[in-house]
Amino acid sequence: MAKEVAVVVTDLVEDVEYTEPVEAIKAAGHNVTTIGFEEGTVEGKHGTKITIDKSIADVKPEDFDALFIPGGFSPDQLRADQRFVDFTKVFLAKNKLTASICHGPQLMIQTGLVHGRTMTSYLTVQPDLYYAGARIEDESVVIDGNLITSREPKDIPAFNEAVVKALA
Amino acid sequence: MAKEVAVVVTDLVEDVEYTEPVEAIKAAGHNVTTIGFEEGTVEGKHGTKITIDKSIADVKPEDFDALFIPGGFSPDQLRADQRFVDFTKVFLAKNKLTASICHGPQLMIQTGLVHGRTMTSYLTVQPDLYYAGARIEDESVVIDGNLITSREPKDIPAFNEAVVKALA
């Protein structure tokens, strides 16, 4: 059965961390809604234009089965806006599938809900997660129940496989 | 007496958080050495070209009286390189003047030395610092002994005043 997947993203996302997982999720038959500050277009670190389907103002977490947070410099900008923090918090608090790669977990730190979770992230964010109470594993993909995290672009194949399996 | 000030920076720094404090420090008669991954030029978020005087490979903390870390997306890239973390750690551990604005304190988290310090930073980094054990104040400039921190571009005048006073 097709699942509804929310992807939160803004400018300076790490391009392939958006494009490749989204392609894999769609190829597995699920629906992706790309959510940003406002409808329109944002641009990745390497110039990829990404269409924002819906503004964060116009979505509710209950409309989605899963959340995906790509990395790069996008998550740090999203966490400056409490609406993205609240949106993310619902997925973690209700134990809905939450997947993120690279800097994506920065957005989770602001929810206060990473304490005690087993996770990974980009190298630079690992101490932030550690101090926030997460247990860090330096693996290509770390699966803690409905929380799936990866470190960096080279982990994308393992990440996609885990996410697609979890959505099935 | 002129002080030697190290500034650590790379691409996507918040332009004015580099240019304006550097101008103020030089205007007060001090010497600035801009340090990056390698000699050459980097580019700020808004296109400012910044000359890197020295590679991190060619400097020692003991050659400097103070360290300044501008913000933007520069500090998160610097903290991926242990040489910048070790460089920063010496200033904090030896209680030398350490000043940073916006995302700059991200680089300090990796040193393990923010615990118990009173600081501020850009909004998004405040929880990271809190979890790392710092006490956060939401003020334009926070002075804790030789540690001076500010939040964002609008705090630059107060930041510059504090840094120039501390260098005097």
From TrEMBL, chains A, B:
CDD domains: GATase1_PfpI_like
Domain DJ-1/PfpI: 3-165
Keyword tRNA processing carried by entry: no
Alphabetic keyword roster: Glutamine amidotransferase
InterPro entries membership: C56_PfpI-like, Class_I_gatase-like, DJ-1/PfpI
Pfam families reported in the protein's UniProt record: DJ-1_PfpI
Keyword Transport: no
SUPFAM superfamilies: Class I glutamine amidotransferase-like
Family to which the UniProt record says this protein belongs: Belongs to the peptidase C56 family.
Name of the protein this chain belongs to: Type 1 glutamine amidotransferase domain-containing protein
Upper classification of the organism: Bacteria, Bacillati, Bacillota, Bacilli, Lactobacillales
